[in-house]
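Worked example 2:
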Amino acid sequence: MANSRSSIDQELQESIAFIRRHTQQTPRIGLILGSGLGGFADTLAEADRIPASEIPHYPKSTVAGHKGFLVFGKVGGTPVLAVQGRTHFYEGHPIEKVAYVVRIMAEFGVQSLLVTNASGGVNPRFRAGDLMVIEDQINFLFRNPLSGPVVDSEKRFPDMSDCYDPCYIALIEETARELKIPLRKGVLFVSSGPSYETAAEVKMVRFLGGDAVSMSTVPEVLVARARGIKVAGISCVTNPATGLSATPLTHEEVTDIANQVKNKFQSLVKEVILRMDSQTH
């Protein structure tokens, strides 16, 4: 076990060493951008863009529309690390690699993480284009990136009672009200994908308490909490889930709806990041 543990930590140190040769920035907030939402990274000031494909040991993104960059830059005066194109379990990566970027963030001293994603609306009140603050999650990946050998500086048994920080949830709700951006609140249900859920599975998700369903986010949140990083989450509901929609679901629809709401999404994310940082500092 000791050899396996040192191997994981060694990979992280090699990744960090490569990244530090390409940027001198020290981010305080991490930002993971979901399908169709990556354009926010292009708005960062003083940006250093590092192709994820060049970082040693970093998993490669293969999803259309995911550019595959780590972008170091600033939102206002807040230094951030934005992931422009996350990786997913369904791409064939080991579950611990799906959350690898959060371990990188922790090594850089990131204290707060804002995760975003595209999701299907399971709650019948939700409509395509809605933004939802995530208040909790249900892990139906049946995998956990904390399993296996212990990683240094990481709790194996983190408490998940407030995996999405209550203060950040309130902050996002208040910010949305002030910006006059309609906002839903709900539980994110995550399964492995890449196929969309059946109508029967969507009924099950609703019965179990899910409001929106996605194929990402949970692994990153689990590692963030194990590292003591506070988490906030915003989901873009890009379509009603199967059985609630009259048309077949497509990835193109997901990215198209996300693009349609990008202005209000980017406005909300920008202000939320600034306020998250002011709470911390």
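The helical segments are 2-20, 95-98, 100-107, 166-179, 199-208, 218-226, 251-260, 262-280. Residues 2-280 form a domain with the Rossmann fold fold (CATH 3.40.50.1580).
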